[in-house]
Amino acid sequence: MGVLGLTLALALPALPALGAADPQPRPKPTPAPLVLGQSAPFSGPSALLGQEYRDGALAYFAEVNRRGGIHGKRLKLVSLDDRYEPPLTLRNTRQLIERDKVFALFGYVGTPTVKAVLPLVESAKIPLIAPLTGAQLLRQPHRPMVFNLRASYHQEMDRMVNDLVRSGRHRIAVVVQNDAFGQDGLKGALKALKRHGLKPVATARVERNSTQTGGAVRTVQQANANAVLIVAAYPSSASFSRDMHRQGSTAQLMNVSFVGTSALRASLQSHEASGIGVAQVVPFPWNERVPVVREYQQLMRRQQAKPHFGFSSLEGFLAAKMTVEGLRRAGPSPTRQRFVTALETMGNVDLGGYRVQLGPNDHNGSHYVDLTFLGSQRWEP
């Protein structure tokens, strides 16, 4: 071989051996999901509260995952049943933090249950997002790790008492659940009544998850109340309302939002439910003119063959949207502290006709309160 032939041979690229496979690019590893932990009632008398809230949240989380997740990371919600009993909530929270290694806590249901885990939340420095409670203990004093979506029970009480007084009802009784939830609601009721120079004509208590409400009915009836503020979940509220109806009472019954509107309606005959008032902290779930309600209905239909719309599931949906917005702002490598800081930058975020405002010293996202009355509105599409 001459010099020229040697040069050409060296310049040619080496050919692959016959039959050798082309090298395949290695697939990129799937990022670990962002895991959120939830403790709520999924069984027992108050189960519908947890089930409906979770359904709404999952409808939005599923859509986020369908579109590729948050910065490429999928969302996973680990939900544990606490039957609305604080000892179980505490046990579940320890499991979520220590065993499941969740990034944040989300969508807890109830005042007494959340009260039980607050010391653990603060010691672990783990964010608790959008608990379904309007209790003051999550608002005052300022809780650095707690971010509320909904208005407070005190704001709900103001709205309900104002409406009752305007309608000429001044003999107002208060029926409360015998725990931290009821105590918070009672304080709000007393403050709201005092602004009008009023005091309750009677105060009665019912046990959590109980339908033994006969004593409360007798107390209210003996006081000749023409309105009743009820601070209880739907099992007790429905039982009280039914007993009052059987006694022929014409008192206007008003519930705080936590009662669970859909569950309350389902627990009563139509003639027993008609006219009962419920404060609401989210828009009307059947009003498609509100952009976020239209989105909520579309995504609920995508998740369920026969979707069930309601206030609790819409609240879960809105809570999921607020959480996702915070995670997006926290960046592709979020830490809990970055997530907290990101939520605190949500100074005025429109979730679609429902605004959320959060700041470093204000973790109360919304002050929205409206009143609804069973039997006077078209609930279903």
Global structural class: alpha/beta
CATH architecture of the largest domain: 3-Layer(aba) Sandwich
CATH superfamily of the largest domain: Response regulator
**Biggest sheet: strands, sense, closure?**
6 strands, mixed
Strand arrangement, major sheet: 7-6-8-9-10-13
Share in β-strands: 5-15%
What is the tally of beta strands? 13
Q: Return Rg in Å.
A: 26 Å
What's the number of structural domains?
Answer: 2
Q: What portion of residues is helical?
A: 40-55%
Distance between the termini: 89 Å
Order of helices and strands: HEHEHEHEEHEHEHEHEHHEHHHEEE
Sequence stretches where pLDDT stays below 50 over 5 or more residues? 1-20
Average pLDDT number: 92
Number of helices: 13
Give the CATH class of the largest domain.
Alpha Beta
CATH topology of the largest domain: Rossmann fold
